[in-house]
Design a protein that fits this description.
Helix content is about 65%, strand content about 5%. It is of the alpha+beta class. Helix 1 packs across helix 9. It starts with a helix and ends with a helix. The C terminus is likely disordered.
Amino acid sequence: MTNPLSSFAHRTARWCALHPWRAILGWIAFVAFAVGLATMVPTQETTDADYRLGESGRADALISSAGFDDPDTEQVLITTAPGSDEGAQLDQAQAQQAAAAIVAGMTALPAVDQVAEPQLSPDGTAYLVSVQLARDQDDVSSLQDVTAAVQADFPQLDVRQSGDVSLDAAIDDRVSEDLSSAETLSLPITLILMLLAFGALIAAGIPVLLAGTSVAATIGLLAPISHLIHADSTVTSMIVLIGMAVGVDYSLFYLKREREERAKGHSTRDAVEIAAQTSGHSILVSGAAVICAMAGLFVIGDSTFNSLAVGSIIVVAVAVLGSITVLPALLSKLGRWVDRPRVPFLHRALDRTKRGAISGRVLGPVVRHPLVALVLGTVVVVALAVPALGMKTHSANLETLPSSIPEARTMQDLSHAFPSEGTTAELVVKADPAAQDDVAAALAEVEAAAEESPLFRPSGTPVAVSPDGSVSVLTLAMPFDESDSRVDQAIELVRSDLAPAALDGLSAADVEYAVGGDAAESYDFVQREQSRLPLVIGFVLLLTLLVMGVTFRSVPIALISAGLNLASVGVAFGLMTLVFQHGWFESALDFSSPGFVIDWLPLFVLVVLVGLSMDYHVFVLSRVREYVQRGLPTRLAVRQGIADTAGVVTSAAAVMVSVFSIFATLSMLEMKMMGVALSGAILLDATLIRLVMLPAILCLIGDRVWWPTRRPRAMGQRVVEAEPAYELAGR
């Protein structure tokens, strides 16, 4: 009985091989059209309203609808110069003169709307000058010139500037530098690894070319789709990351099989068709599995995850399309030229290396002693995954910004010196303007009760009232870093106790209130993520079970796939917890531990890792099933199939580990976390899990692994030709 997916891949590849120029030109036209869309249709990026979530989202909506004038501000911090003696007091006279110079210089600038009077910090160690920018002003270079001039006039002081515009610009520049560095390094590394895998320049370039065009087409297609689901600022980076990963993997799987079949004596066209029936089928299945995994991001209901899901799903679908159309067309047209020009000595060395020689040394003991191998492998996985049970998550904040960004360091120091500029919560109340006096009295009651609690301290910020008098905002300051668990306790205290006690008794009708602010937004996001994470895991595992069960018509295969995917995810979570929450390898990776994992990363790593793991899993099990269909016992089929695919999986994993390891060297902590988690987990997945645990489980279960069928039936295609018995027995 012919498998529908295999038949579809075969028919598509056959047509493309028979009409290579049509397929190649069709792909070029498709990519050009998609890229053209991006120039004709502007991308709709996410707005602040898209990120509103829970009670903090309601608070933000109330503030937004009230007409509050909320222009961008820049802050100038004046402290003792870094080289001063330890414990030296701030020279008040000098600091006041510097602050006056800042006020005078800033007031004269057309980019400035108004300048506040200098504030002295509660502990007397710093002065702060707040500068309100003119509306829609996004150039603060003139303000920075004033700050630099004052610093030059007062060398004994430290005069620094940061704020809404300058900090955002500095972060954007650093992210751009990081991504540019990653892209610059990843492309040559990928090409070098492909050269090591194939020993020929054209064969090495095809996977990179296909992946690159898939990414370009996806970015273009995303432009019109972004008007339905707004595009988050990070989606392009994720498209590049996922697109290069799956694009290289799919091309590698297909190209390796086509070269293998040509080496057996098949013609180029027959080799392309056989590769389509086998690797092409695996690409369709793994692509479907990756798409299903990425679809799990929709369960969270967050704009960032929705955008990442859309971008990832599109780039995977485009990569699959290219792998079963233009790739066989290129291989058919190039023929044996795909192995040209050969790299001197390397190609000959690869030809002399027997397929499965290295992996066979690992598989031999595993197949002979599967129970021991499984126990040892499980011990390693559990040891690495157990720390994940204590994982703490929090949103990115000032603590997670690299201190090498001067503006970030300034804001960190500023938040410590001035509590109202640090961790705060906002109690927003909407009521009839006629009840303004009652609302003010209630907010005063809340503020007094809060300051009696050790969870709060005076903010020094008066209650803000909207122009129409309908919305009031009370700022409550907390003497903790935003990631401190006591911040969550403080937010819960206001929401469940202080605010209801003071506001629920107001006589005015239709009183609405909510607690918001950055800390509350992080709290609400973590609560949403934790409540829905089990749903996401269940969704992804269920779809994984269905895809694998339907593909291999085996319940044990589906369960094994889900279990091993969970093992990879557990390792990734454990590594993130050990490294970034507990601070392992801080000096080696050049970062300071914030004591938590950035909240959106575990979920994203989960779906990406499940998707990429499925690539390897489907490819390996498909080859094992081929040998079973040829009549080999399951134990021998396992050893043969995994030995044959080990080189391809290792090459694909080497590319992913290398690229993700580059991310681990970048300065932004989100990039480091993602790089460490994915590179470490993929390395373990491609070695310990695929070469030890998977074959051990398959050997222990034996022929029962194909239940409810007794053994897989042959696909009825010429790919089922048996290999020489001596070759099978000799490995």
